[in-house]
From TrEMBL:
The keyword Ubl conjugation does not apply. The chain crosses the membrane at residues 39-59, 65-81, 88-104, 110-128, 140-158, 188-206, 213-232, 261-288, 300-323, 343-374, 394-424. The keyword Transmembrane applies. InterPro entries: SLC26A/SulP_dom (IPR011547), SLC26A/SulP_fam (IPR001902), STAS_dom (IPR002645), STAS_dom_sf (IPR036513). It is a multi-pass membrane protein. SUPFAM superfamilies: SpoIIaa-like (SSF52091). This is SulP family inorganic anion transporter. Gene3D superfamilies: STAS domain. Its main location: membrane.
Length: 554
């Protein structure tokens, strides 16, 4: 059972230490009961990860062994060094398009170099404690991104799902790809199509009737057995890649030159950003399932180390994987040891069963990824956003369409910018400027004035009073300045009530300084009421201090 402090606390260690959660677990005490639970969970996750890792690598244009090396090395390091008790690292479907594009432009060696550099970037992001900011991605951006990736993954598997034969290289862009696949439709391989359908059917059937069984592994093993027994004329891992090795390669640095480093740097930045987003999102999912709190910056440092480690063994990009992490939690994994054991189990499977992998049909792995793509698309969330929010729908559709037809990072970037602009617009509308008026002291002429410039008469009839509510930031500064500028003939005294202003930025302070200067030129006294210490500091930076105005408590 999780400790109450772990459930309710804010994980203060996440801001003060980079100690892996594994250290926390060992300090608590690690006994046989926990080991048994972690071993069972690790074995369960390894059974899921084995076919999935090869499928993702193949879909990315990399050899299947690269996916296994990534699950083994990257998965072990993510769990051993990470800031989450339950995170499972490895190759992820979200990277398929990015990896394929990088290999297409720079070759596999270029991808390995980009992965190594991305690891260094992730470590730097973590050490600079920037992990908190990565989590500020609007929900519509995440939904649009994952839905777009799901479409691209499925499109990338159509060729193997139907066993199509293309005359040349399959285009990377979606529309040319679909056009080429349509033209190749007469080359459909019935055996491949049947194996794809069988794989999908077995996975979905077992998920419904025997959810505790390893559906992915059973489906792929059944398809491989049929290929072996019936000698089906379909492409397999052996026919396309020559099988997989039965041992890990020796670690080695990728081919390096300054020119190549500069060339792969944009891809490395994209891998780092996408990896950070995906891994922290996965850690948040695990937190929601367990009541724990992860250490975001520690997690990013671990992801960086895992990407460097995987690249040294010829692997591909590593990130936290939501589906495998959720599987680990549901299987009873309690500590990072479960993730470490999952990596060791994948290594054991590779050492023992490497020759059998040659019989795995690519159609079966395509079926696995088709199911992954279907599960990845958050269909309910997508529809809910379209129904309930016009502004969020714009962000969602912009991200979704740009991911599909342009580029992953362009989609995320535009989505974040649009989401931020919408958020600033909403926050600016929250800011109000009101006049505190005593109706008994207002004549008919006063009552006809705009509410924001109503005159508040004191005994001498010489005071304007404004009450500003909400955050004074650059998005609201212009509208606030416009309201304050409507003062008209200046009275002897102006009171600005900032009691309900939680914070202010320099843009708002500049706007207020302009109003203060104008009032002083008209021989009006300015009083600022109820400003908090942080707000006063910001105002002070623009010269609004006791030499110009009088500050009073509310």
């Amino acid at each position: 059972m999780n400790e109450p402090g772990a459930r309710l606390g804010s994980d203060t260690a996440s801001h003060g230490t980079f100690a892996p959660k594994l250290f926390t677990v060992l300090r608590e005490g690690y006994g046989p009961a926990r080991l048994r639970a972690d071993a069972l969970a690790g074995l369960t996750v390894a059974i899921v990860a084995l076919p999935l890792s090869m499928a993702i690598a193949i879909a990315s244009g990399a050899p299947p062994a690269a996916g296994l090396f990534t699950a083994i090395i990257g998965g072990f390091l993510v769990s051993a060094l990470g800031g989450s008790r339950h995170q499972i690292g490895g190759p992820a479907g979200a990277f398929i398009v990015l990896i394929a594009a990088t290999i297409d432009q720079h070759g596999f060696d270029g991808l390995v170099l980009a992965t190594l550099v991305a690891g260094a970037i992730l470590i730097a992001i973590g050490l600079l404690r920037l992990g908190t900011y990565i989590k500020y991605i609007p929900h519509p951006v995440l939904v649009g991104f994952t839905a777009g990736i799901a479409i691209i993954i499925f499109a990338s598997q159509i060729r193997d799902l139907f066993g199509l034969t293309l005359p040349g290289k399959e285009p990377a862009a979606l529309l040319p790809k679909l056009q080429a696949l349509w033209q190749a439709l007469p080359t459909v391989n019935p055996a491949a199509m049947a194996l794809s359908a069988l794989t999908i059917g077995v996975i979905l059937g077992l998920r419904r009737w025997r959810p505790g069984w390893p559906g992915l592994l059973i489906a792929v093993a059944l398809a491989a057995a049929l290929v072996f027994l019936l000698n089906l004329p379909v492409e397999t891992i052996g026919s396309r890649f020559g099988g997989i090795p039965n041992s890990l390669p020796a670690p080695h640095l990728p081919a390096f030159s300054l020119e190549k480093l500069v060339a792969v740097l944009p891809a490395a930045v994209s891998i780092a950003i996408l990896g950070g987003i995906e891994s922290l999102l996965s850690a948040v999912v695990a937190d929601g399932m367990t009541g724990r709190r992860h250490r975001s910056n520690t997690e990013l440092v671990a992801q960086g180390a895992a990407n460097i480690g995987a690249s040294l063994f010829g692997g591909i990009c590593v990130t936290g994987t939501i589906a495998r992490t959720a599987t680990n939690v549901r299987a009873g994994g309690q500590t990072p040891v479960a993730g470490m054991l999952h990596a060791l189990f994948v290594l054991l499977f590779m050492l023992v069963a490497a020759p059998l992998a040659s019989y795995i049909p690519l159609a079966a792995l395509a079926g696995v990824l088709a199911v992954v793509a279907w599960n990845m698309a958050e269909k309910a969330a997508f529809i809910a956003i379209l129904r309930h929010s016009r502004a969020d729908s714009v962000v969602l559709l912009a991200t979704f369409l740009l991911v599909i037809f342009e580029d992953l990072m362009v989609g995320i970037g535009v989505g974040v910018v649009l989401g931020s602009l919408i958020f600033m617009h909403r926050m600016a509308n929250v800011v109000t400027v009101e006049a505190g008026m005593d109706p008994a002291l207002v004549d008919d002429d006063d009552a006809s004035e705009p509410a924001e410039t109503e005159k508040v008469r004191n005994g001498n009839g010489d005071t304007f009073r404004y009450r500003i509510s909400g955050p004074l930031f650059f998005g609201a500064s212009m509208s606030v300045a416009t309201v304050l500028d409507r003062t008209g003939p200046f009275p002897a005294r102006i009171v600005l009530d900032l009691s309900d202003v939680p914070f202010a930025d320099s843009s708002a302070a500049v706007a207020l300084r302009a109003m203060v200067d104008k009032a002083i030129r008209h021989d009006a006294r300015v009083e600022i009421l109820g400003a908090t210490a942080p707000v006063r500091r910001v105002l002070g930076h623009e010269g609004i201090d006791e030499t110009l105005v009088r500050f009073r408590d509310a």
